[in-house]
Amino acid sequence: GLAGSLRVPDDSVLYPPTMTKWLLHRAARHGARVLTNVHVQEIVPRGVIVDGRRIDAALVVNASGAAAAQLTPGLDIVPRKGHLVITDRYPGFCRHQLVELGYLKSAHTLDAASVAFNLQPRRTGQLLIGSSRELVGWDASMNREVLARMLKRAIEFTPRLPELRAVRTWTAFRPATPDKLPYVGPWQPQEGVWVAAGHEGLGITTALGSAAVLSDLVAGRTPAIDPTPYSPARALAGSAS
Q1: What is the reported pTM?
Q2: I need a labelling partner for 176 at 20 to 30 A (CA). Which of 65, 83, 92, 148 fits?
Q3: Backbone CA torsion sign across 135, 141, 145, 146
Q4: Which tens digit of pLDDT belongs to each residue from 176-234?
Q5: Whether 145 contacts 152, CB under 8 Å
Q6: Which strand (E) or helix (H) includes residue 236?
Q7: Which of 80, 181, 66 is nearest to 131 (CA)?
């Protein structure tokens, strides 16, 4: 049933934990004070409450992913659960990412659980197998039926997968919005509060672009792209209607 394929030689896979550490390191080099292993409890006027103490800030950016609506009530962002499987090390089994075209349809369907084939080789020789999407709130438990569907789909594209040994299976949450676009811009109900959240599965991939748009807006510059489609005002208009 495979009609054909398209190879993109310059395509790359980004490892989010390493990218995050790199960005934090660069921020620290530019004078940022990085706090880790802390819990932001509330955004308050001109600051935030972190582990019971107040930190003053003239500008607050809510970039807390699927949990963004907990800090900014009114943001229409919901957690969308996904399953992932990673294998033992098999160098050379797969040399580049494989993804089915139907992945886009799966990513943009919010009304039911969906699966789509996505295989990513790691530099370690491990293979990351995905993916699934479910709207089940913050239920992080393993859905065996969805996981089985996801693996069956992967095996249809790569029949030798059953020869490999899986070492870990887990779930995580993507921040989903009703119109599938992120919120990037000012949060009008709270002065000094800005939002960069709701990117679904593309948070790391679009992080620098979102930051460029947001920094231009904060500084009063005209962004390189029209920020209107990403305005958090969409959430306010939705709740009003």
Answers
A1: 0.90
A2: 148
A3: positive
A4: 999 999 999 999 999 999 999 999 988 988 999 999 999 999 999 999 999 999 999 99
A5: no
A6: helix 233-240
A7: 80
